[in-house]
Structure formats: C-alpha cells, structure tokens
Amino acid sequence: MTPLKILKEIQVTNFLDSRGNLDVAEFQNIGEFETKRIYYISSVPEDDARGAHAHKNLDQVFFAVAGNLIMTVTDGSITETVELKVHEAGYFLPAGYWRDLKDFTNDAICLVLASEHYDESDYISSFEEYLEWKKSE
Ligand code: TYD
Fold this sequence. Notes:
By secondary structure, the chain is mainly β. It has one helix and twelve strands; from the N terminus they run E-E-E-E-E-E-E-E-E-E-E-E-H. The protein has a single domain (8-136), classed as Sandwich (Jelly Rolls), CATH 2.60.120. The strands form three sheets. A five-stranded antiparallel beta sheet has the order 1-9-6-11-4, with no helix packed on it. A five-stranded antiparallel beta sheet has the order 8-7-10-5-12. A hairpin with a 4-residue loop joins strand 7 (68-74) and strand 8.
C-alpha cells in the first residue's frame, strides 16, 4: 500500500477470550489530540453517504466499531481511500481536508472523536469553496 500522507493509521489490538472481545487503540503517533466530543453514525442506507465537507480547525479520529465503511479524504490533489472495519485500524484526520464516508454496511457504526466542540461555522460544505479556502491557507 502507498504510504499515507494525509491520514495516520491508528493500530487496534484485539483481546479475544471466552468472555468476548476487547479492542484497544493507543494514540501514540498523532501528536497532541484532546477529545472534546464524540459522535457515532449508524443506520446509513446502503446507497447513502455522510461527510461531504471539510473542517477548518478540527482534528478527528475515525473508527468502525461495528460493520465497515469506506472513507475518502482529499486536499484536491492528494486523495486517500481507506476501509474502516470493526476490530481493525482507525485513522486520524487532521483539520483542513475534505472527507466522504460511504458504502456503510447495514450494521456499520462509525465512531468519531473530535478535538473541538461542535461549531457550525467550522464546516466547509461546498467542494469548490473548499478548494478556494485551501489555496488561500
Ligand atoms: P453532519 O456533520 O452534517 O454529519 P456528517 O458528518 O455525518 O455528514 O451533522 C449532521 C447533523 O448533526 C447536523 O444537523 C449537525 C448535527 N451535529 C451536531 O449538532 N453536533 C455534532 O457534534 C455533529 C457532528 C453534528
């Protein structure tokens, strides 16, 4: 696989025994990340998508805690696509990138950790506007 330039993979270790499974992710390679908010996305119809925006000032970490889904991120020039799968790696996405989440399985739950509280004005929801903003950064 080509090395990732935008996303940083966060390894997940599984501890499975007769009592069930426990998954652990240690945030070792993503620098300072304080979680101020979490949210999780579920029940996404098969042909639907989420995301389709960028954040100006919000770092995030994404995991699938059930099922699987596809995440694509871009800055307009580099594009990276990863599959998020239950029990497998999560990804750190720094501020300033466009993201699309799609192909959720019926059971998929996407857990997102966010470095800031919710702020509607931090969103860029038009790709054209995003490209303009990125140029001016
Ligand atoms: P949105 O960010 O558009 O979802 P997605 O990234 O999955 O496309 O959020 C959907 C709705 O939820 C929108 O009305 C804003 C609201 N919302 C909050 O109020 N707080 C939050 O922390 C988040 C992430 C969304």
